[in-house]
What we know:
The protein is α+β, with helices and mostly antiparallel strands. It has a domain at 122-239: Uridine Diphospho-n-acetylenolpyruvylglucosamine Reductase, domain 3 (2-Layer Sandwich). Helix content is 24%, strand content 22%. The chain has 15 helices and 24 strands. An eight-stranded antiparallel β-sheet has the order 18-13-15-14-20-21-19-22. Strands 1-2-3-5-4 form a five-stranded mixed β-sheet, covered by helices on one side. The longest helix is centred in the middle third of the chain and has 17 residues, at 305-321. The protein is globular and about 70 Å long. 55% of the residues are buried. Belongs to the oxygen-dependent FAD-linked oxidoreductase family. Residues 1-31 form the signal peptide. Keywords: Ascorbate biosynthesis, Oxidoreductase, Signal. It is an enzyme of class 1 (oxidoreductase).
Amino acid sequence: MKMTMSRVQKRAMESLLVVVSLGVLLQLAGCSPPPDPVMCTHGTSNCTITNTYGSFTDRTICRAAKVTYPRTEQELVAAVAAVASTKQKVRVATKHSHSIPKLACPGGDDGTIISTAQLNRTVCVDAAKRLMTVESGMLLRDLVEAAAAAGLSLPHSPYWHGLTIGGLLSTGAHGSSLWGKGGAAHEYVVGLRIVTPAPASQGFAVVRELGADHPDLDAAKVSLGVLGVISHVTLAMQPLFKRSVTLVKRDDSDFQEQVALWGHLHEYGDMTWLPHQGKVIYRQDDRVDVSTPGNGLYDLPLIRTRELIDARAAEERLQENGTDTARCEAAQQQAAASERLNVFTNDGVSFTGYPVVGYQHRIQAFGTCFNSPEDGLLTSCAWDPRIRGFFNYNSGFSVPLSKAPAFVADMQRLRNLNPDSFCSSVDPSIGVLLRYVKASSAYLGKPEDSIGVDIIFYRSHTEGMPRAHADVVDELEQLALHKYGGIPHWGKSRNFAFDGAITKYPKVHEFLRVKDRYDPEGLFSNEWTDKVLGINGSPNIIKKRCAIEGLCVCSNNSHCAPEEGYFCRPGKVYKEARVCSFFKDY
């Protein structure tokens, strides 16, 4: 029976668009911030830890014997000494724990979590030298606002300001730029202090101070948290500046040519591909003179929780019972509504047209939902695990810039085979985000200039439940990672993306040597970091329906969902790929 969109479903899908495209027309007064990712049954003992989405890639619960919340570097040293003296496993948790993989899990039930939630202050600002030192648990939002108050700007950052400075450094989080040192925040680190285990003769913990010329800084500024706990970070800032942003929507016929050029033309340029529409949104984003009029803002308006729940329910119905016709009709509804929304405002209140000009700290990142007063869950972040709202995968990976045009051409070839398959496999309003990342000196940073790709897509609450046209994103990822030599983002992606990825980092052996010196017992390492760093085991989890969950690449039908018509098949464009395809689609 053909499923068409009812009036109720259309309203729900418009609510879905509102959330996904990060904007609503109605601004609300408050919002329930996300819950603490660490929950304990007896004070600070008998704890569990998750991420801000409430689920790791393998859906397991991570446990720990206890959590500690140091408020000073001295207390942090004491916390590290306590675990080192008993050789307990330990991992660092941030305030919101945004990493999708299991980076925050100590391992087993007897480990310790050290949270940096209360290490959130500015240590010092030297406006004359353009240096700023902060504690590692400081949120990006607070950092850039404090810098602006001192007449300074952090040149580049990720787009989400709910990350802590220690967390975003540990995973190599980035914005978009090929100019200067590039768009990764760790490129602007000129010093840090890190607490590591030590022998009993040194009190079981020491503070290591790494200046700009210290040979270990390139290991510490992107480290997955396996070296110790960063206490302070010193950043090279720039005088407060403004940016001018214009979004231009064009046909994607020259997409593969533009992907090689756009990042060189605009300092903060990025691209969003809308495959079903055959369009690309080009972000023209550059610095302008600070005297240029404008007080623009890039922000995430608040969302009513009821709208989030309704939108997710509509999405589930379309995923589980809809047809391609119904899904594409919904996608068209979302696209139409998207034209009426904008995450930029010219004055912090309303959008009157491009360009949007504003100070760097108001343009570089967004994230209202996590920092508003509690309102009893009347509103919330879209992915708050306490509500049945958004529950998605976020695949992040990068492809060498020299290979980006060929990669884009293959993506378009896959789209052209069945455009309707992209209505449900790739979010139709977010599309595929492409950002530019410059080669890094960090041992675990990008080995060469790259294009970073982000794809957000549906995830079922039911383990092993196939999603519509699941093979599309799986083939895109394998295409990027294997045919074009791409690498996964350390804080995103599913398990299979990390299999063998560490071999693509030329300086990983230098990193591991520093790791062995800083933490010879491996107290700050866990099963996940050992696997992705190539020390022990594989990130793949082989079991029934593992490929549906992204825990493996299928090698036989049991890894898919044969009972529901999903079988392991070669990719449609990249024949070496192995994906779970619905038998009627292949």
